Amino acid sequence: MEKAIQQIAQTMERQLDFELEKLDALDGGDLEAIRQQRLNEMKQRAKQKQEWLVNGHGEYTEIDGEKEFFTICNKSENLVCHFYRHDSPRCRIFDMHLKILAKKHVETRFIKMDAEKAPFLTGRLKIRVIPTLALVKANKTKDFVVGFTELGNRDDFSTDMLEWRIARSEVIEYSGDILTPPTEGKKKSVHIQSKKAIRGRTDSDSDLSD
Known about the structure:
Helix content: 40-55%
Oligomer: single chain
Number of strands: 5
Strand order of the largest sheet: 1-3-2-4-5
Strand content: 5-15%
Largest sheet: 5 strands, mixed
Radius of gyration: 20 Å
Distance between the termini: 29 Å
């Protein structure tokens, strides 16, 4: 953990030096104000990243039970929770992609939970299909990714496709086109279900406060 934090700090320091060099080339009376504002923003971002890492961000981890789920919700603004079963091959496909996204999106906590060990949560969230991803923001479920239907209805969907789908619920920071799925050069569009269409769910903003 300490090594990871040091790496983040070193990366931010290099970025800061680069930004300061660009600012040094500017002229005008507002230079110092711009410089100080940018410096403060980068310091705040570096501090936030370190706090995320301390809280378990940056890794895709399995949690032991429902109590831990609520604890994590209280600590992390953005959360992706994979409800899985050991006997489901498709759950392992989600695992592969989520490990990658957890390292890329440090601003979001990525976890997994055995659905059979979470009867209260699966009932409360009306989870009937495995695998399901619950997308949580500020202690409220924003959306659900149910199976692979919205990912092209295929097992070999890309990590970029899953990233885009999660980004539509605003639980990760995304720099791409949120309106257009990354279909890997294919012109065929992907059908996007509305939140209310997912298994008839109308409570996609269910409060998860314990």
